[in-house]
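ingest -> validate -> predict -> emit
validate: passed (alphabet ok, no gaps, 732 aa)
predict: started
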Amino acid sequence: KREETQENISQQTQHTHMFSWVSSLFSSSQSSQSLSLTGNLIRYSINRAPKTLGVGAQMHVGPAMNADEYVVKVEDKQWDLDEHLQFSLVSNPHHLAAFSWNDSPSSYMIFILSDPSRVDEMINTVSFFLWRARYGENPDRDDMTEMRQLIGERKFPFDLETLEPLDTESLSTSGSNKQQKKQTREASPIQSRRKTLYPTFVPDDDDSHYDNETELYTTDGDLFLLDVQTNQFEQKGENFHLSIMRLGDASRYITLLVISTQDNQRVMSTPINSTMALSILTDHNAISFNTMQPLATWAFMFLDENEIRAKKLMVQCVWESQYLKNFADLNADDQLYLYQSYIAGIEDQGGYESEDYMDLEEEEDEYEDEDDDEPQLIGSSPAVPSGDKNSLLVDSAKHDRAFVVRGEQIGIFNDETAEYQGMIKVGVKPDQIMLHNGESRILMAHKGKVQALDLTKEKIVEEYQTDTKIKNIGNVQKYAEQTNQQLFAAMTNNSIWGMDPRVHGKDQSINKITYKTNPKFNVFATSARGQLAVGSEDGIIRMYSGIGGLQKMTGKGLNPKSAKTNLPGFGDEIIGIDVSGDGRWILATCKKYLMVIPTEIDNSTGFEKRMGKRKPSPRRLQLLPQDVMKLQGKVQFSPAKFNTGADGETWLVTSTGNFIVTWNFRRVQKNHIHDYTLKRMHDHISAEQFVSMERNATGANEAPIFVVLDNDVAIEKRVKKRHNPFQPGPQF
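emit:
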């Protein structure tokens, strides 16, 4: 009977469309009914032996006092039934009908049904209540498969009947004598799998700087490897040493993370730097990190419950590897800010809960079959140089047109249909473009100069003068391109200022301020009030009340040249930056990750008031390990952008390679940092942005994305779907 039950469970797990459908679930009264079962309750905490809490215990699953909420109750214990409970089937060799759920961040409850024939009833009822809790309505018959996917699957490292540990592959070297240790080493998978599984740092043969290793710190714990198929960390061994080693002279700031057995057999060594994507998992007293050769995600769970030195030292080593200077040079507030930024799962009580979920769907399945694609080339006439590719994009909210740069030409497209509407020859290859003056002109930055392209006359009509080679241009305030605002902003490595086309002469700069030191300015963006965020090559983000030397939006005086708040960097170059219309959020892009940074403080923001010790921790948005592997570890984000409009920012978009990535911004505000969609396109993506909305226009929540490929353009439409996009991070 158990074998039959387990076979049913397996089929339900692998073929969701095959599980029996209970017609009563469609009745309106079902949402108020409860399910009662009898079974045994087990509690399992990581690094502790499982414990039976009840035999013949009564379980009830049903509505809470609030009809829109549901609970799981066993005897006198109760849990809210929602996505965070991670309610799952338990896979086990004894074919027991068992379910599990989270009791705390590091412990689980397991309930083994006394009557295994009721497993279908349990699955259907719990998934039904999970659906109701998420969407507030009954599912349709067509939702069967998606509803079933709300229940996961989990394995545990012990026998559910005896509670004894399973005989699984382990790297533990515990033994009572030297012979046992020798046998363990001979049979250990370390030797047979080291080349393919466990990374080893090998310095260049001719580099003598690596000869000397100095141990900075050592602590003990258990090693885990992420199974990307199940999204579960699987234990690979216990009672290991984790050592942080310095290589060569301290001034080189080269450190290694070394994992070794109790008898000092080195299992793993990998450089400590930004590519390891370090994350501190405080709920599990652990750290996670990536290795590139081979590509894998690991976790190390510390045995000492009060371990903090290793975590702080890891953050310090990552930072020092980027800046090549002493972490102690930072003030204590900035050190704390950086440390907290690596902590996964910091919940921010501000923000909004997402009201609905959307997914990406290509227009009319245009790219469903890549073999049938007919690329829509820009300027496909012989006049287009064969070596040019599409590069830059701006979208006009007022005229529903998208402008795409290809070589020395700008293609014009309908931003709702991607229909080609014409082409303008400009005679230069712009480095950057922006709309200006009521979207009647395109400003083009080229070799340090700025030229104005009149879109009516379709020719360059002006060139703006300054005594400095311009690196970047942008708006003095968000949405300024939709107005008759004449001013625009320009930037170099050590200055940012306003430009006024109405000023005649050799220099059209306004109150230009140049810093004596080189802050390595790289990108900037403004809010609707003109608040200014500047990202630097060294990762620092500076927050100003506005463009220095320009009139304040309040009309009282000029904006000061100094920043109100400096956010310390992680050492990675800020390659893109955006600011929400209300100035409450900054979106910064680095090569491997994005940062979403709240700016509010005391009914103001860090643009007007110094944050000091109260700098908020940014949400670091990274792809899940399974998606990084899908990209073969090659992640290089394009500058991320918010959507726009009167509804406020609800989504953000970026791309990497052939993939377009969108995050649900309102979910990110609630710290659901993995709520994103990843969509493959048929060619490399050159640029992308949400179709622009006028500042007071509604419906931005459903704005499509205009995507520019190297030799094509496409529209990605957003449509409402009953789809659960919640993606939890890796679980233990």
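Residues 646 and 696 are 5 Å apart (CA to CA).
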